[in-house]
């Protein structure tokens, strides 16, 4: 097993103004090359904080994160981020958005254009190269964002609830497309979601986070056969895995409620 | 996808024809209103309700206007004033935009420069006229300088604000794709803040006109400000009114030109504009 990212006893605290919030506490997790690792947890469990640490936007207050045995010390283009809010540049066309990373690496315009074209085609956005992001639907925007990230050829895709803002039908199409693209491009994916179903459809492995401070509560291998069509969601194994994950998530949610009530009274 | 696209074009077309009808009605009402105003003015002067000596009737103003246009004075002066505004404003727009973006992106620099800006900013732009006269006399440089001094501080404040309001998400995304600090400034901050920067430029351009008209009243031998000040000295009220009309028309013309440039500079807003236009 080839470990790409090693998260070693990481904790993260930040000052929210009137109190110090501990987002992560003693988190240990390995990410294996080529896998889709889904991180599931209730809101506020530090899932997004972890991605932001791996992307190098922030530094952990304790422990360390290693990328190929070297600590991550800043933003690294090997870890491409896909944001829930797409973060496409609205003043650039789809084509220019996808070319952005290549332009930053000073790739010649002709090659830039060709590479961008390849990934725009891969995500199925041909014909929309000259559209501006505000003219696209949510699903199309997220596909453009995916193409933009892929064109920069990252080793790892960090996806922060990327399909949370699109409707259920579109989400299912995007999930299928993501599985397909990851298989073709052989990326390692860390996918944060609060949907157990999404995690079961996409992942090779699922890490359930505890509520704040976030730690890995349960880590389990997703052995459901691929491809996981809608029918797969009706198999006994699917139901079994889902209830197993739900049990541990539920425990955390209930604990969080209890804590909120205590602090309220 | 194809279906939604074509449907939106259809809606766009019917929307634009509806908008054309509204515009036509608007123009008709405006014309009627303007004619009524001028007619009333002429009538009141004819029955001596307003004294022609202090407030000449439209026919009188028209005669003066024909004279000023005929001998080329009006166009000359309008061009002289517009040129002064544009040259001075070009300096202040360049320096002000660059400085504003730098202040917005570099906190230490902001702390360093902010005290100076906050002392200069409350000054009405006209307060610079004495200093500029002492430093530069009454030549063209003084005219450019008065525009520069009068508009720089407010422009810097507007642009700094616009820069600070850029969504940090864009900056994160750009850094994640390998953008350097300079690239972030030029490729992210500048275009993201551009719509607000353009509004800031429009507001400060109006200030620039105030500066130049006043500066021409105080120390100049040409320009629209000089025209109305000089006419006042000769008690030529009709000429004062002509000059004021000319200022208004010149400013409007310049605004129209700039608005068409703006549309070309921010093409990505066409989707949003369409969306809000349909609501």
Describe, in plain words, how this protein is organized in 3D.
The complex is a heterodimer of chains A (265) and B (279). By secondary structure, chain A is an alpha/beta fold. Chain A has 7 helices and 10 strands. The model of chain A has no long low-confidence stretch (mean pLDDT 90). In chain B, α3 runs parallel beside α6 (140-164), α3 (73-105) packs antiparallel against α8 and α8 (181-218) runs parallel beside α9. Chain B has 11 helices and no strands. The model of chain B is unreliable at 1-10 and 271-279 (pLDDT under 50). Chain B folds into 2 domains: 8-50; 53-268, MetI-like fold, CATH 1.10.3720.10. Helices cover 84% and strands 0% of the residues of chain B. Chain B has helices spanning 2-46, 58-70, 73-105, 107-120, 129-136, 140-164, 168-176, 181-218, 224-233, 237-265, 269-278.
List key phrases describing it:
heterodimer, A: 265 residues, alpha/beta, 4-stranded antiparallel sheet, 10 strands, 38% helix, B: 279 residues, mainly alpha, MetI-like fold, 84% helix, 0% strand, disordered C terminus
Map the helices and strands.
The complex is a heterodimer of chains A (265) and B (279).
Chain A: E1 3-15, E2 20-32, E3 36-40, H1 47-54, E4 62-67, E5 70-71, E6 79-82, H2 94-104, H3 109-122, H4 138-151, E7 156-160, H5 168-185, E8 188-193, H6 196-202, E9 205-209, E10 216-221, H7 236-264
Parallel strand pairs in A: 3-8, 3-9, 6-7, 7-8
Antiparallel strand pairs in A: 1-2, 1-4, 4-5, 9-10
Helix pairs in contact in A: 2-3, 2-4, 3-4
Chain B: H1 2-46, H2 58-70, H3 73-105, H4 107-120, H5 129-136, H6 140-164, H7 168-176, H8 181-218, H9 224-233, H10 237-265, H11 269-278
The outline of chain A comes out as globular
Query: What is the structural class of chain B?
Result: mainly alpha
The low-confidence parts of chain A are none
Describe the biggest sheet of chain A? Answer: 6 strands, mixed
Instruction: Report helical residue fraction of chain A.
Output: 25-40%
Largest sheet of chain B: none
CATH class of chain A: Alpha Beta
CATH architecture of the largest domain in chain B: Orthogonal Bundle
What share of the residues of chain B lie within helices? over 70%
């Amino acid at each position: 097993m080839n470990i790409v990212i090693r998260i070693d006893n990481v904790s993260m605290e930040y000052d929210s103004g009137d109190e110090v919030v501990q987002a992560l506490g003693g988190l240990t997790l390995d990410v294996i090359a080529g896998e889709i690792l889904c991180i599931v947890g209730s809101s506020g469990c530090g899932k997004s904080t972890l991605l932001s640490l791996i992307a190098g936007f922030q530094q952990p207050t304790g422990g360390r994160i290693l990328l190929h045995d070297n600590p991550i010390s800043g933003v690294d283009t090997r870890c491409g981020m896909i944001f829930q809010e797409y973060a496409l540049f609205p003043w650039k066309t789809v084509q220019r958005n996808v070319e952005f990373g290549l332009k930053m690496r000073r790739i010649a315009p002709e090659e830039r254009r060709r590479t961008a074209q390849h990934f725009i085609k891969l995500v199925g956005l041909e014909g929309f190269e000259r559209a501006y992001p505000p003219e696209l639907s949510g699903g199309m925007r997220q596909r453009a964002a995916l193409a933009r990230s892929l064109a920069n050829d990252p080793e790892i895709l960090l996806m922060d609830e990327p399909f949370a803002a699109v409707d259920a039908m579109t989400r299912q199409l995007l999930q299928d497309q993501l599985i397909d693209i990851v298989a073709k491009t052989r990326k390692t994916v860390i996918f944060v979601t609060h949907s157990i179903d999404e995690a079961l459809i996409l992942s090779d492995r699922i890490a359930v986070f505890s509520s704040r401070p976030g730690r890995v509560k349960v880590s389990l291998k997703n052995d459901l056969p691929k491809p996981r069509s809608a029918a797969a969601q009706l198999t006994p194994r699917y139901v079994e895995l889902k209830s197993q994950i739900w049990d541990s998530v539920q425990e955390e949610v209930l604990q969080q409620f209890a804590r909120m009530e205590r602090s309220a009274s | 996808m194809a279906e939604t696209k074509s449907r939106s074009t259809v809606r766009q077309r019917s929307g634009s024809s509806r908008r054309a009808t509204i515009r036509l009605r608007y123009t008709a009402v405006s014309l009627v209103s303007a004619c009524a105003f001028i007619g009333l003015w002429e009538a009141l002067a004819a029955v001596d309700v307003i004294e022609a000596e202090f407030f000449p009737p439209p026919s009188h103003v028209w005669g003066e206007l024909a004279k000023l246009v005929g001998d080329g004075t009006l166009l000359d002066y309008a061009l002289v004033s517009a040129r002064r505004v544009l040259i001075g404003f070009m300096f202040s727009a360049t320096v002000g935009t660059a400085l504003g973006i730098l202040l917005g992106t570099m906190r230490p620099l902001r702390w360093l420069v902010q005290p100076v800006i906050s002392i200069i900013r409350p000054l009405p732009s006209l307060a610079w006229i004495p200093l500029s006269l002492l430093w530069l006399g009454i030549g063209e440089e003084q005219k450019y300088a008065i525009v520069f001094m009068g508009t720089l501080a407010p422009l810097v404040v507007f642009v700094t604000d616009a820069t600070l309001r850029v969504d940090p998400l864009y900056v994160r995304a750009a850094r994640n794709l390998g953008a350097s600090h300079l690239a972030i400034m030029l490729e992210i901050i500048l275009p993201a803040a551009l719509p607000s920067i353009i509004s800031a430029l429009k507001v400060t351009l109006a200030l620039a006109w105030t500066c130049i008209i006043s500066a021409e009243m105080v120390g100049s031998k040409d320009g629209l400000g000089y025209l109305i000040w000089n006419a006042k000295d000769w008690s030529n009220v009709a000429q004062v009114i002509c000059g004021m009309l000319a200022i208004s028309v010149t400013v409007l013309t310049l605004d129209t030109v700039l608005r068409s440039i703006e549309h070309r500079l921010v093409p990505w807003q066409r989707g949003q504009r369409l969306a809000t236009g349909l609501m």
